[in-house]
Design a protein that fits this description.
By secondary structure, the chain is an alpha/beta fold. It has helices spanning 11-20, 31-44, 46-56, 71-74, 81-99, 137-150, 167-176, 186-195, 212-221, 246-257, 272-287, 292-302, 315-321, 333-337, 354-359, 395-411, 415-422; strands at residues 2-5, 106-110, 113-121, 124-128, 154-159, 180-183, 205-207, 226-227, 235-239, 264-269, 304-307, 325-328, 345-348, 385-393.
């Protein structure tokens, strides 16, 4: 991990160098490849999906096996009951918190004018569930639960095909009540959800994390279909001082680094000796982890220790970074929190490890990355809904509004607008 010292004079330039290295994926290199995949799915439909399953996933998908047979859900699955219990606890907690996000409709009645703002669920959504080297049940829960609360009628899951179906995936599908699942992954899955094939009907909005091909496909198809966000590598900023446990802090940095070699772990502290202690613990703990090679590459490439003059005054640095995860472990965290505008998920106190947010506590772990916390929020119920405006005007209110509308349409040169008002005037 690199160590840099910040002061008022060098803060901007040094932070700029750090942040420019966050998103190392260069989507332009993928543009032509993904474009051709999307076109292939558009022209050839299911046949393209079979071809790419064999090419990329090395699995032969027969025509009748693209869609999950619902009998799988009803069969007895060989799963650890303790893990199943943890799934259920996570679903319960996430459901409880997300129900509080459900919006209220607004109605205004004034001067014989009725204005309404009505929230409605999106009709259909597609959820991309990563497969391949790993299965992340938490991501499935984080997407399905708010969709269900929003009232989405059709929830479609896609996941890369494999030679053996993951029983925990099937168990979780059963627990969440998802009835439409397809074994297709990569850019071709996103294309199928957006455009549709003979087997897969198109959806209105696509959610869920994936590799760079999935992200690029979402980018190219945005407009044809809605998307949640284009996710970059995971990132965390930990704020800690000499009064913290260096081993605990090190574990938080490592927990983020194990995601991906492009993940970014940043420690902000005001004590160089404490920083050295943390780095020693990082080295020790990394060696004990089965993903130590990924961790070492991630921390070597993107890991940073930022030394500031005053730990309580580092809000400017944090707001410029706008991290996906922010863990403030200093005792005076409330004072610092009040100055934080840009962060995806915020964790307060030394016991509030970010892992709780990833799995069980109830908040959503789908969060903005690569500085997107400056203008966006984490996933929630509202992302699965849309707002309709309703206007009701009677003859009395018409007379109060007509002149202003005629004046404004005249200044904009929209004569037909003006006419639509004038034609309703009483002689």
């Amino acid at each position: 991990m690199k160590i840099i010292k910040l002061n008022n004079k060098n803060t901007y330039n040094k932070l700029k160098n750090i942040l420019e290295n966050r998103n190392t994926i260069r989507y332009e290199k993928l543009t032509s490849t993904v474009k051709s995949i999307i076109y292939d799915v558009k022209i050839n439909g299911d046949l393209a999906l079979y071809k790419y399953a064999k090419k990329f996933d090395r699995v032969s998908i027969q025509r009748n096996k693209l869609k999950l047979n619902l009998n799988y859900k009803k069969s007895n699955l060989s799963v650890d009951l303790n893990i199943l219990k943890s799934f259920r606890n996570a679903i319960k907690n996430i459901t409880k918190f997300h129900k509080l996000q459900y919006p209220s409709n607004i109605i205004q009645k004034e001067n014989n004018i009725i204005l309404e703002s009505q929230w409605k669920p999106i009709d259909s959504v597609g959820l991309y569930v990563p497969g391949g080297t790993a299965f992340y049940p938490s991501s499935l829960i984080m997407n399905v639960v708010p969709a269900k609360i929003a009232g989405v009628k059709r929830i479609v899951c896609v996941t890369p095909p494999s030679k053996e179906i993951n029983h925990y995936f099937l168990a979780l599908i059963k627990e969440l009540g998802v009835d439409e699942v397809y074994f297709v992954g990569g850019a071709q899955a996103v294309a199928a959800l957006a455009i549709g094939t003979k087997t897969i009907k198109p959806v209105n909005k696509i959610f869920g994390p994936g590799n760079e091909f999935v992200a690029e496909a979402k980018r190219q198809l945005f407009g044809k279909v809605g998307i949640d966000l284009i996710a970059g590598p995971s990132e965390i900023v930990v704020v800690a001082d000499k009064n913290n446990n260096p081993k605990w802090v090190a574990s938080d940095l490592i927990a983020q680094a194990e995601h991906d070699i492009n993940a970014q772990s940043i420690l902000i502290t005001d004590n160089l000796k404490f920083a050295d202690l943390v780095l020693k613990e990082v080295k020790k703990l990394s060696e004990l982890n089965q993903k130590k090679q990924i961790i070492k590459k991630s921390l070597s490439k993107n890991g940073v220790v930022i030394i500031v003059d005053k730990i309580n005054e580092c809000s400017n640095v944090i707001n410029q970074i706008a991290p996906e995860h922010l863990h403030i472990q200093i005792k005076s965290y409330k004072k610092l929190l009040s100055k934080i505008n840009n962060a995806g998920g915020i964790f307060l106190g030394e016991y509030s490890t970010e892992a709780f947010g990833d799995y069980i506590v109830g908040t959503n772990h789908v969060l903005p990355t690569s500085g997107a916390a400056k203008f966006s929020s984490g996933l929630g119920v509202l992302d699965f809904m849309k707002r309709n405006s309703v206007v009701q005007i009677n003859s009395k209110s018409f007379d109060k509004l007509k002149n202003d509308t005629i004046n404004m349409s005249s200044i904009e040169g929209l004569d037909a607008h003006k006419m639509s008002v004038k034609i309703r005037q009483k002689n």
